[in-house]
Every structure is written in C-alpha cells, then in structure tokens.
UniProtKB/TrEMBL annotation:
<feature type="region of interest" description="Disordered">
    <location>
        <begin position="1"/>
        <end position="20"/>
    </location>
</feature>
<protein>
    <submittedName>
        <fullName>Ggdef</fullName>
    </submittedName>
</protein>
Length: 285
C-alpha cells in the first residue's frame, strides 16, 4: 500500500503512506554468575531508555548463559546467539562488530583508582607520574582490553586467569596494586574477598576508555535506533539522571578533583569528541 487507507491513488491531495516503525527484537546475554559491580542493572536501564526513545516498538529478551568473558561474547554475537551486548571497546572489537559509539559510563571506566593492601598505600605517597608508577606491579586479568594500554605506558603487569585471583595476589604481595575503575572499586572493596585491602587515596590513572553497545555488522537498523534513542535520552535528561542515580555516590567517594592524575597515552582508537559524552572531574585546587 502506497497511500493512507481510503485515499484514492488519483487524488492529488493524498499523502504518502508511512509504514509504522519496525518492531525491534533485542536479545542480550544474561550470565548466571557475574562480578558484583552492578554493570547490568545500569546498562539495561540505559538500553530500555534508548529503546523507549527510539520511536520503535520493541521486545527485550535475555538469553540465559553460563558466565563468560567479553572475548567469548564477540563470538556469541557473531554466532547469532543474541544480537546486542555491552563491551569494553578495542580495535579488534570495532573491526569485528558494529559499535554504537556513545560511552555508556561517560568514560569512567578509564578513571582508575588503586586497590592496595592495607598499610601499603604509603608506598604511593610520592607517586606523581608514570616514571614513579613504573616501579610498582599492577594486577590485571588475561585478555583484558586495557592491558596493551598499560603496557605501552610502561606499567609492569602480572596477569591472573580470574578476577577473584587478583584479590588473592594482592593480599599475598605478588602485585602492588589492582587498578579498578571508579564504578567498580567501591563495591569490590566491600566484598569479603577484599578484606584487608583499601583504596589508595592520592592518585588516579586516566586514559580514554569506553563501554559501547555492540551489534553485528549486519544489524544497521538496530544500531541506528539505539543510537538515536541514546541521544534522545541525553537531550531529555534521562541519561544523566540515570548515570547520577547509579554512580553519583561512587564519584563523590572517589574525590577525583583532589587526586594527582597520572595520564596514560592512547592512540589506537578514535573516540567521540563531544565533551558532553565524557565525565570531567572538577579541577584540583
């Protein structure tokens, strides 16, 4: 049908028929066990806001899966086990999949505080730059996308096969610190496995980093709808309200404006340049 119902094809006053928006069927993984950093609740809230603001009817369906890492999720997306996931971006991931280039955490994933053994925070009192930091060994997981960033900036790494193992390594003195983002560290510090650990109070590592929604390369309609919905949520204030609701307290506790910022270089990716998409802490007095 090319024209609205009841109109004559010969009627010059008739208006072109506009089909209703396509219903979006969005599937995403719901692992049975995840690290308790609360990513899922926040990101799913944003996803629902984006879909509600996209102008499309939608169905949002979780796909139950055992726990897995982000590298495996790349494969699951390509295998069509689901059609969307939120992942920490890197060059390989952006070539393989379709990124929706709007940083879901406003870049807070790249503001890293140091989890240290209680009493060891004094070791970092005179740490002001990368040269000083290079004397300390950081703990990271295997295949974490920020490992190359840290290595390129001269930071020694000790890798672990598991997230839980890094807490044990820190407690045993096998690493000097465990760099965790502002949105992770406070929840993790309160866990039983972090007993005897504390957050170093004076420094913060910073580099550009972003979690994006990713779809398959052959899903342009879904990606476009979510992107437009996210920008609509920014424009009407829903995005910022959600961000502050979930992470305002963590930002306040982190006191980024009072810390010495140790900036790490990153030039492997092109990130969005609009300042409103990125969190910017107050200047240190």
């Amino acid at each position: 049908m090319s024209f609205i119902a009841g109109a004559s094809a010969c009627n010059s006053q008739s208006k072109p028929y506009t089909p209703p928006p396509t219903k979006l069927h969005v599937t995403y993984p719901e692992p049975s066990d995840r690290n308790p950093h609360g990513f899922d609740a926040y990101v799913l809230t944003l996803l629902r806001l984006a879909l509600e603001n996209s102008g499309h009817p939608f169905a949002l369906t979780p796909v139950k899966r055992p726990s897995f890492g982000e590298t495996r999720s790349e494969n699951f997306l390509q295998m069509r086990e689901y059609n969307l996931h939120w992942l920490n971006t890197n060059l390989h991931r952006e070539k393989l999949l379709r990124p929706i280039r709007l940083p879901l955490f406003r870049g807070l994933i790249g503001w890293r505080l140091a989890l240290v053994k209680l009493g060891d925070e004094r070791q970092f009192e005179n740490t002001h730059n990368l040269t000083h930091l290079s004397h300390f060994k950081a703990g990271q997981g295997h295949n974490w996308p920020d490992n190359p960033i840290l290595r390129r900036n001269g930071i020694p790494l000790q890798l672990s096969a598991s997230w839980e193992g890094l807490f044990k390594m820190l407690d045993q003195g096998r690493i000097d610190y465990f760099p965790r983002s502002v949105i992770e560290i406070w929840d993790e510090q309160s866990l039983p496995l972090a007993r005897g650990l504390t957050v170093e109070p004076n420094i913060v590592l910073h580099y550009r980093a972003a979690y994006y929604f990713f779809t398959r390369r052959d899903s342009p309609e879904l990606a476009t709808a979510i992107e437009s919905g996210l920008y609509a949520a920014i424009a009407n204030g829903d995005f910022e309200r959600t961000f502050n609701q979930f992470y305002g307290r963590a930002i306040q506790r982190s006191q980024l404006g009072t810390r010495r910022i140790i900036a790490l270089e990153r030039n492997d990716l092109n990130f969005p340049v609009a300042e409103l998409l990125w969190y910017k802490p107050p200047k240190r007095e």
